[in-house]
Amino acid sequence: ETGVTQTPRHLVMGMTNKKSLKCEQHLGHNAMYWYKQSAKKPLELMFVYSLEERVENNSVPSRFSPECPNSSHLFLHLHTLQPEDSALYLCASSQDRASGGQETQYFGPGTRLLVL
Amino acid sequence: QKEVEQDPGPLSVPEGAIVSLNCTYSNSAFQYFMWYRQYSRKGPELLMYTYSSGNKEDGRFTAQVDKSSKYISLFIRDSQPSDSATYLCAMPHSSRRALTFGSGTRLQVQP
After folding, report:
1. Nearest CA in chain B to A10
2. Do B43 and A41 touch (CB under 8 A)?
3. Which residues in chain B are closer than 8 Å to A10, comparing Cβ atoms?
4. Closest Cα to residue B89, out of B20, B41, B40, B42?
5. Nearest Cα to B83, choosing from B24, B23, B20?
6. pLDDT tens profile B11-44
7. Which end of chain B is less packed: N or C, by CB atoms within 10 Å?
8. Would you call A23 an interface residue with chain B, using a CB distance cutoff of 8 Å?
9. Residues of A with CB below 8 A from B2's CB?
10. Whether the predicted pLDDT of B99 surpasses 90
């Protein structure tokens, strides 16, 4: 496997279900991100992890819960979602620089989520 | 006012046309600029990035930055049907650990 992989690619869930999205990066990066992409809207940043610590939570509802067990893996746990949460969820990774800047972000293919 | 504005299109052109895609931004803290291409049902992939004002060329693609006007462009020469995708401009903020994206312009190149 190369680059950034995401599973599952498609997910349909009811509002009472619990599911998890998985992301794995094979690029040796130290930062990982979750973005939400809805139709006709810009990509919305959800969470940022750098060196396995959450460094940004962009006012995301608590029904989304991220987990970063190591620098290569990132999860997004989903619980009691709403239909308006249906979207493409994209994972990305990058190499954070010690100076605080960052290098290019590389994206996975996304998980297309439908909440019924 | 949004930090990054991008016309969503769709933009439809015939094969071989020159395509111009544009973004404007309001935050002068943005120091470098990226263009991502996103095919249907795929994640965005980096196409080009540039740090400074002026032009940067890569094959059929040219990225142009005008920092005085806070305006960036991506030109595609001799456009091909395989260029049909959504093009997103993105800018890493100097103090924020994320990219700020435009909403994307959907391009359709007709054979």
Report:
1. B41
2. no
3. none
4. B20
5. B20
6. 999 999 999 999 999 888 777 899 999 998 889 9
7. N
8. no
9. 42
10. no
